[in-house]
Structures are given as structure tokens and as C-alpha cells.
């Protein structure tokens, strides 16, 4: 991975205009597609398989007048007047007729209709006009809504002055999130932090440009996809938050690594390549963790949430790809002008301020001053960050203080209630909120969230009597204020009961009432023979909240388990992942606690412009857990990977020995080297998320607050305080892992070790080496299984092969020979020593070698000639053949002919065919090569070991190695 990214970074650096124009073209195409095809976002929520959804489907089939979206026109007479006065009654009758004539309006209920009760308040000061639309909220044309609003305006002008009129209900219960100027403050804060971090105006804009292009592309694709899928209106805002935050941070990590390298004298192009290979690898890993967590939102089994997770994952994926391509391209525009203020350096030598050095001056300065600087550096004691020194000197106190503090912060989370958003959480300036408040004031809070019970009554001989009996039964249930309507449909095959609860739709007591009504199902079915289902907008919201609440534990287990596995792969440690997972849980608990304290308890509610306290949006916890997991892993990787890197280097310098002092020193040096960048990244993410809190949509507010708090807690209290304290307590044991687990887990080059190895061996076996094959002390060791431990198949293989030559490798052990063939062909990467194939260093460049080196496994093949022909068909300049001495008779002659033909095809090429072959005996193979006109043959007897012949692993073990 790191070597591929390194090459990608170098190419992007060399071709900045191509990369920039390509991304801008993609942005333009996606934007154009969105403008042409987008259908708008969806504010409706549904959840298949629940009782509420089944009830809605029943009403759609049998009672369409009650199945669509409803709205309410609330009328409140001035003090001293009544809505029953002629001044109101006549106008209400007129407005009922006018609204009924609007397209897509199924029915309008006159509050004075003799068949209707409960639509006029007990004091006759308020009345409700019920409006039923045909279809869900997304199906209602804007023209119909506008016409109803126009009728309402005319009605408002016709009634007496000081009359309160507000249009609300389910159709207006959810608001469309929109960006405001406040959100731009987060971007400005991010820019300010970047300027301070990089000490350069030009470089500070690079992460912003990268993030904005990525966010623009992601949002365009999301709106384009509305032509094919239903997407919640919250989704684009979530994608913007995440895309901005991770886009800026990912580019920041790459640019910061590049700037540090340039300041120490690394060539800018080489630095961009290294930064993309090293920091870019960590970016890819961090992005993958966020992607997995977001896609894991499908655990809840709720379609709109699954779509939201996929859309947000797309935004993060685009941010990763843009970061590893566009960022090095932008660095290509700046060339060497990235050092920043006070860091005008060249080759690591400080220059006079305001003047740049030429090549000759740089060389002279390096020659004369470098020895003195080296001597001075050797004598200088390492300078550690003051904070990490304080933390590591008092690790027990620090660990206890952080753990207890975050535990206390999580206490309010116990009172966190969940619900879908309704008009009650909209700003008080919203007409829908005004209708909600008027309704609650004059008709009770339950009037804003009526429940519906529906069922088939086709077997009843007295539908009206049955519905009256059911009404009397339901009214006896605690929590029911009244049954506003109990009626059969026109064909008398479906009954509908409209229930007004005593409590508001987002009150936990209403959810309990729904559960109690459903608990009466069996009794009512037995007594009356009616299979009643509880449904309605409020019941759907309760079902979604219950489903999400039930999904939190499985999702949490998935996320924590995933973090343990991923971090074990990265850090080759058991205790580091456990510590990281516990820290993540502390961060989640604290963020939940703060959200509950603000939105449930009302702490700082006015300061954060929270108009109404109460339950938060249902999918806040699961989204916060998923997103915070990915971001927490970002900081863990960038901080702890540097500690591990320093620990490994120190242990190597001490010839494999390491003690507590070595481990603690690595914690301090790793923290010091990465704290600046992690701090900047955390401040930027906090600013981006926090900017969505003051003026954000009611659905976004708790998510944004939870993420902002979670980022601050996780970065500064967990990763930068608790982590170094715990690592100090663990000492060298922090990096312990059982051997069997180390062998089982795959390797992921998160720290760019392959890039560093390529830099170290850039001139091996000699400068500008252009021959096809070179190896020094190559060996392959695999897990022998069955308690055998590690088995060496072969070792100490040293060779040089020039273009057009043939290397014949012989071994009495066919598995050792096959392991050699697979290694040279890039199929086995678990090798020791040095190996360069076609100019590419293995194992780092194994992907390129696999794609360009032919491989024919003849030993044991059903059709060996087909294998050989396939290996030679790609016009490869290097072919590896295993078991060439197994060919006999006609097969041997055809193989020689195939090799001759391949060599003839490449005869005119600058690089002729090179062959690597393995055999048990060299005689038959040498004869075949003679017939194939390959006179230049080098032989290499493989050095095997007794253990490998006595207990040799299977072919699958060799290949999987």
C-alpha cells in the first residue's frame, strides 16, 4: 500500500495540472448531473416489517382517506370571542370548501361537523381544521402546498384582528436543513488553525481546497442519486460535516509530514512521495475504519439510515482519494515554497531570512556546517513536550483522573431519550412550531401526535356497534385522553380508531401507551375478532426509536470488536487495542452525557439556541458511535504509530533489547513528534462540527454537538492524556503479542515501512541498477502448523541475473523450489533478505511484479503446457517456471519451442526474455534450455533445512505466506 501511494504521490506532484483539472471536471460533471436529474430529498421516515408500517399499508389499501399525510389549520379566537361566533363559523366553512378543492387534498374535516368531536376546544376559543392529503409528504406537489398556504393567508385576512392562525401537522413536522453563515465560521476557524500550524498562507489553503472539492463532489453525487433512491434531507448535511472534517484533516496529515521533511532538507518531490506513502497510508487506514463504521449503520435494518450511512461513507471515501491525489498535486504547485515563516531552510541548514539559497550555496553550507550541526545534535538532550512529561511522570493520577472525570460526564446519558423530530423542536419563529404550541395549549399535548388503530372488520354484522364498543374499550386504557374518531370505512370492511394521548408525541409516556395498546391485541382479538394494529406518524417514530435502541448494543459490539482487530493488525499488540477501545467507550459515554445534559436537562440550552428540551433525534447515538469510532482511530493511529516507530528503532539500536526506560522514552518522543498535527486536526474537526450547533437544524444540532464534544474529549483527554499515561504504566509490555496471533493477523504497512525500506535500498545492489533480478540472502519462512512453529523452506539465496539470461534454481525439496518461484513472481511476500525484480523492490512492490511477471507452475499441473503458454502470452520480459524438469517427451519439446518463440518475439526489443526456472535436477532442465537456444544459464542450488523436508508445510501454506 505505502509503495503504491508513494508512486501515486510522485506522479501527482509531477503532473499537478492534470490532477487538478481532472477533479474539477469530475466536480463539474457531477454538479451538472445533479442539476438535471435531482428529485429532492425526502423527509418521510418508514421502517418495513414493523406494526406501524403494516398498519399504514392496510389503510392505504382499505381506508385511503386516512392513509395519506395530514395537516392542521389551528384557529384561536381573540380574548373575549369564541370560534363558534358567526365571524368565525362562516369563514371556517368557507376555508374548508376552498381547501377541499385543492389538488391532492383527499378530505377536509369541518370542526363543527356533527359527526366529529374533539376539534373544538372545551372553552370554544380554538378550533382545528383537519386536512388529509393523498400520499406521503414527498408525494405532495409544492403547488398544492402553496395553494393551501394562500387560502390560509386569505382566511387570516378575513377573520377578526388578533386571531391566531397557524398551519402545521405532519406535513410540516420536519424542516429542511440548510446551511447558514454560521457554518462558515467553522471553515474560517479551520483556516486560522492551518495558518498557525503551517506558518504559511499558501500552504494553509491546500487542505481547505482539497476538502471543499471533495465535499462538493460528494454532495453533487448525493443529489444526483435522488433520481434513483429516496434520501433523507439530513443526509447531505451529515455528508458536509463529515466531508469537511475528515477532508481537511486527511490533507493536513499529508501536508504536515511533507513540510517537516522539506524543513529538514529533503527534496520537495521526494518529500511529497514519502509523505503520500507514509502519512497517506495512515489516511487510507483511517478512512477505511470510518467507512466500515458508517456502512455498519445498516445493523439497525432501517432503509433510510442505511442510505444515510452509505452516502456519508461515499463522502469519506472521496475525501480519502482526493487527499492522496490532489494534495500532492497542490504541493507540486508550491514546489519548495512550503517551509513557512522562520523555516527558510535548505538541506537542513538555516538561511538568512528573506533570501533563498542556490544549489552551490546549499552544498557549501551543508559541507561546512553539517558536521558541526551533527556534533551539536548528538550532545543535545531530547526536548520532549511539557504535557507528555507531566502525564508520564504521574501516570496513575492521570489515568484515575481522566477515567473518573469522563465517567461522571457520562452520567446524564442515562436519561437520554430518543424520538423522531417533530414541529415541537423547530424554532419558535416557524409557523409549524406555532401550530404545535397552540394545539398543545388548547387541546393538550397529545393532540399533536394522535395514534391510529386499524383492523379488518369484514366479519362483523354490526360495524357501527363494533366500533362503538372498541371505542369504549380503548378509552379505559390509562394514558388515553379521548378517542376522537371510531368509524368503519365506506365498505365496512376496515375500522379506524383515532386516539388522542394525554402526553406529547415525543414523551416516553406516549411510547409506553403504544406498547400498552399493542399488549391489548390478543384480548381484543379474542373478544371482538378484530386484528388491530397501532399506527400513525407518532407510532412510526416510536417503532424507529425502539429499533435503533435495540441496534445500539450489537453495533457497539461490532465497532469495539472491529477496533480491536484493526489496531492489532496495525500495532502488533494486544494491550494497545484494548486501551484504545476502552478510551473510545469513555469518549462515547461523555459525548452522550453532554448531549443529554443540554437537550434533556437544559444546561446551556439558551447559549446553544436550543428552543425546546426533550428527546433527541433517534439515530443520533448510532451515527455518533460510528463516526466517532472512525475519527478516534485516526488520532490513535497518528499518535501511537509514531510511538511504536520510535520504540522499534530504539530496540533495534539496542540489538533487540528493550526495557521500561526505552518504552517510556518512545512514548514521549512519539507524542512530541505528532502532538502538533493531532492538536491541529482535533481543533479543526471540533470547529467544523461545533459550527453546526448554534444555528443548525434541530435534527443536526444534537449530532453536531455530540461529535464536537466527542472529538474534543477523545483527542485531548483520551488520546493525548490517557493514552501516554497508560502506555507509561504498561512500559515495554504495551507492545506484547503472542506469536501465534502475530502469524495469524495480516500485515498492514500503516507507517510506510516499505517506503522507508525503498529509500534505504535505493542504490542496492548498485546505483541505477537496471538488470531484471537481484537477491541477497533471500529466505522464506512459514508457519509449519501443528505446533511445529516457524519452518525455513530455504535461506541464503544470493544471485544476480542480467537481461536475456536464465537462472536455474535446483532443490531436492519441491516445496522449497516452489516457494522460491512464488517469491520471485511476487506471489509470496513473507521473505527475508533483499530482492529486486525488474527494478522493483519486494515485498513492497509485489502488486506490480504480480502484474508484469509471468508465472507457470508446471509441477502437478493438469495441463502444464497451457500454464506455460499463458505465462508467455503477456509478452512479459521475465517469466518464472516452477518444476521445468517434470516435462518429458513431447511436452518437453513443445516447451522448448514455446520459449524459443517467446524469445524470438522479443528479439528486437531492448530487453530480451529472462527466465527463472526451478527443478529437482539440473540435467533435464539444461537440455531443455539448450533446445530452446538459451545458452547463458546460471545455476543456484537452494540451501534448505532438515526441518523443512521432515515437516514441510502444504502448498496452500506456502502460497498463503
TrEMBL record:
Membrane topology: Multi-pass membrane protein
Composition-biased stretches (Low complexity): 363-374
Region Disordered, residue ranges: 355-374, 941-961
Keyword check for Plastid: no
Localization: Cell membrane
Stretches that traverse the bilayer: 178-198, 205-231, 237-256, 277-302, 308-331, 396-420, 551-571, 583-604, 616-641, 662-691, 703-730
Cellular component terms per the entry's GO annotation: plasma membrane
PROSITE patterns per the UniProt record, alphabetical: SSD
Keywords carried by this UniProt record: Cell membrane, Membrane, Transmembrane, Transmembrane helix
Top-level division of the source organism's lineage: Bacteria
One Pfam family here: MMPL
Occurrences of domain SSD (ranges): 200-333
Name recorded for this polypeptide: RND superfamily putative drug exporter
Amino acid at each position: 500500500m505505502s509503495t503504491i501511494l508513494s508512486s501515486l504521490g510522485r506522479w501527482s506532484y509531477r503532473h499537478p495540472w492534470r490532477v487538478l483539472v481532472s477533479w474539477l471536471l469530475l466536480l463539474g460533471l457531477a454538479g451538472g448531473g445533479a442539476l438535471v436529474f435531482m428529485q429532492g430529498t425526502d423527509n418521510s421516515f418508514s421502517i418495513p416489517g414493523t406494526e406501524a408500517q403494516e398498519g399504514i399499508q392496510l389503510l392505504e389499501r382499505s381506508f385511503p382517506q386516512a392513509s395519506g399525510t395530514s395537516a392542521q389549520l389551528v384557529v384561536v379566537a381573540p380574548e373575549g370571542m369564541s370560534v363558534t361566533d358567526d365571524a368565525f363559523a362562516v369563514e371556517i366553512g368557507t376555508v374548508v370548501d376552498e381547501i377541499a378543492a385543492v389538488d391532492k387534498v383527499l378530505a377536509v374535516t369541518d370542526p363543527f361537523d356533527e359527526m366529529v368531536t374533539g376539534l373544538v376546544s372545551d372553552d370554544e376559543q380554538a378550533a382545528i381544521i383537519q386536512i388529509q392529503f393523498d400520499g406521503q409528504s414527498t408525494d405532495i406537489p409544492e403547488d398544492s402546498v402553496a395553494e393551501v398556504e394562500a387560502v390560509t393567508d386569505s382566511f387570516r385576512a378575513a377573520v377578526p384582528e388578533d386571531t391566531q392562525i397557524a398551519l402545521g401537522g405532519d406535513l410540516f413536522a420536519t424542516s429542511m436543513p440548510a446551511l447558514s453563515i454560521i457554518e462558515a465560521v467553522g471553515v474560517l476557524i479551520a483556516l486560522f488553525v492551518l495558518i498557525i500550524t503551517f506558518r504559511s498562507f499558501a500552504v494553509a489553503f491546500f487542505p481547505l481546497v482539497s476538502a471543499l472539492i471533495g465535499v462538493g463532489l460528494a454532495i453533487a453525487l448525493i443529489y444526483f442519486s435522488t433520481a434513483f433512491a429516496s434520501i433523507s434531507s439530513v443526509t447531505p448535511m451529515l455528508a458536509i460535516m463529515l466531508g469537511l472534517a475528515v477532508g481537511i484533516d486527511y490533507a493536513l496529515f499529508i501536508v504536515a509530514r511533507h513540510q517537516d521533511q522539506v524543513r529538514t532538507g529533503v527534496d520537495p518531490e521526494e518529500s511529497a512521495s514519502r509523505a503520500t506513502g507514509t502519512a497517506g497510508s495512515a489516511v487510507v487506514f483511517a478512512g477505511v475504519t470510518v467507512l466500515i463504521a458508517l456502512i455498519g449503520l445498516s445493523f439497525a435494518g432501517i432503509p433510510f439510515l442505511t442510505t444515510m450511512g452509505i452516502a456519508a461513507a461515499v463522502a469519506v471515501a472521496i475525501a480519502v482519494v482526493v487527499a492522496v491525489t490532489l494534495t500532492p498535486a497542490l504541493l507540486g504547485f508550491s514546489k519548495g515554497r512550503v517551509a513557512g515563516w522562520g523555516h527558510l531552510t535548505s538541506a537542513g541548514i538555516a538561511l538568512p531570512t528573506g533570501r533563498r539559497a542556490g544549489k552551490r550555496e546549499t552544498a557549501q553550507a551543508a559541507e561546512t556546517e553539517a558536521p558541526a550541526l551533527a556534533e551539536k545534535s548528538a550532545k543535545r538532550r531530547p526536548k520532549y513536550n511539557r504535557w507528555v512529561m507531566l502525564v508520564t511522570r504521574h501516570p496513575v493520577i492521570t489515568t484515575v483522573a481522566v477515567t473518573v472525570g469522563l465517567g461522571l460526564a457520562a452520567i446524564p446519558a442515562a436519561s437520554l431519550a430518543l424520538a423522531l423530530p417533530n414541529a415541537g423542536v423547530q424554532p419558535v419563529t416557524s409557523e409549524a412550531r406555532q401550530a404545535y404550541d397552540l394545539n398543545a395549549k388548547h387541546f393538550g399535548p397529545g393532540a399533536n401526535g394522535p395514534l391510529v388503530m386499524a383492523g379488518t372488520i369484514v366479519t362483523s354484522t354490526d360495524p357501527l356497534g363494533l366500533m362503538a364498543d372498541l371505542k369504549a374499550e380503548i378509552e379505559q386504557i390509562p394514558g388515553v385522553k379521548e378517542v376522537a374518531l371510531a368509524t368503519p370505512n365506506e365498505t365496512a370492511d376496515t375500522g379506524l380508531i383515532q386516539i388522542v394521548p394525554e402526553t406529547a408525541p415525543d414523551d416516553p409516556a406516549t411510547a409506553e401507551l403504544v406498547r400498552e395498546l399493542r399488549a391489548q391485541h390478543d384480548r381484543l382479538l379474542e373478544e371482538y375478532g378484530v386484528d388491530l394494529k397501532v399506527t400513525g406518524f407518532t407510532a412510526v417514530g416510536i417503532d424507529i426509536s425502539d429499533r435503533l435502541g435495540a441496534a445500539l448494543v450489537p453495533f457497539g459490539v461490532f465497532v469495539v470488536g472491529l477496533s480491536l482487530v484493526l489496531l492489532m493488525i496495525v500495532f502488533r499488540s494486544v494491550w494497545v487495542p484494548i486501551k484504545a477501545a476502552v478510551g473510545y467507550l469513555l469518549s462515547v459515554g461523555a459525548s452522550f452525557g453532554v448531549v443529554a445534559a443540554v437537550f434533556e436537562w437544559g444546561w446551556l440550552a439558551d447559549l446553544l439556541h436550543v428552543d425546546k428540551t426533550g428527546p433527541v433525534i433517534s439515530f443520533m447515538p448510532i451515527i455518533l458511535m460510528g463516526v466517532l469510532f472512525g475519527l478516534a482511530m485516526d488520532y490513535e493511529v497518528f499518535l501511537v504509530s509514531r510511538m511504536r516507530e520510535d520504540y522499534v528503532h530504539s530496540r533495534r539500536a539496542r540489538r533487540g533489547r528493550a526495557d521500561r526506560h526505552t518504552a517510556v522514552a518512545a512514548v514521549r518522543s512519539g507524542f512530541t513528534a505528532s502532538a502538533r498535527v493531532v492538536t491541529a486536526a482535533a481543533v479543526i474537526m471540533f470547529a467544523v462540527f461545533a459550527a453546526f450547533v448554534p444555528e443548525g437544524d434541530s435534527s443536526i444540532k444534537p449530532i453536531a454537538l455530540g461529535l464536537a464534544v466527542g472529538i474534543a474529549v477523545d483527542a485531548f483527554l483520551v488520546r493525548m492524556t490517557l493514552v501516554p499515561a497508560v502506555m507509561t504504566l504498561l512500559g515495554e509490555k504495551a507492545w506484547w503479542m503472542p506469536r501465534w496471533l502475530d502469524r495469524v493477523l495480516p500485515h498492514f504497512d500503516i507507517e510506510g515501512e516499505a517506503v522507508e525500506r525503498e529509500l534505504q535500498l535505493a542504490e542496492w545492489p548498485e546505483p541505477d541498477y537496471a538488470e531484471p533480478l537481484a537477491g541477497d540472502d533471500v529466505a522464506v519462512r512459514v508457519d509449519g502448523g501443528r505446533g511445529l512453529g516457524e519452518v525455513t523452506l530455504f535461506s541464503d539465496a544470493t544471485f544476480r541475473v542480467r537481461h536475456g539470461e536464465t537462472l536455474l534454481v535446483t532443490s531436492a525439496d519441491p516445496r522449497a523450489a516452489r516457494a522460491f518461484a512464488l517469491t520471485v513472481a511476487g506471489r509470496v511476500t513473507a521473505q527475508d533478505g533483499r530482492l529486486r525484480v525488474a527494478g522493483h523492490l519486494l515485498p513492497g512492490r509485489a502488486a506490480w511484479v504480480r502484474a508484469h511477471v509471468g508465472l507457470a507452475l508446471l509441477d502437478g499441473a493438469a495441463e502444464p503446457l497451457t500454464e506455460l503458454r499463458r505465462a508467455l502470452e503477456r509478452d512479459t520480459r521475465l517469466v518464472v517456471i516452477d518444476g521445468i524438469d517434470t516435462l518429458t517427451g513431447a511436452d518437453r519439446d513443445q516447451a522448448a519451442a514455446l520459449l524459443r518463440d517467446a524469445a524470438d518475439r522479443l528479439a528486437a526489443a531492448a530487453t530480451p526474455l529472462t527466465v527463472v526456472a526451478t527443478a529437482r535436477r539440473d540435467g533435464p532442465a539444461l537440455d531443455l534450455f539448450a533446445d530452446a537456444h538459451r545458452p547463458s544459464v546460471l545455476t543456484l542450488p537452494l540451501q534448505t533445512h532438515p526441518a523443512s523436508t521432515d515437516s514441510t508445510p502444504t502448498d496452500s501454506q506456502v502460497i498463503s505466506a
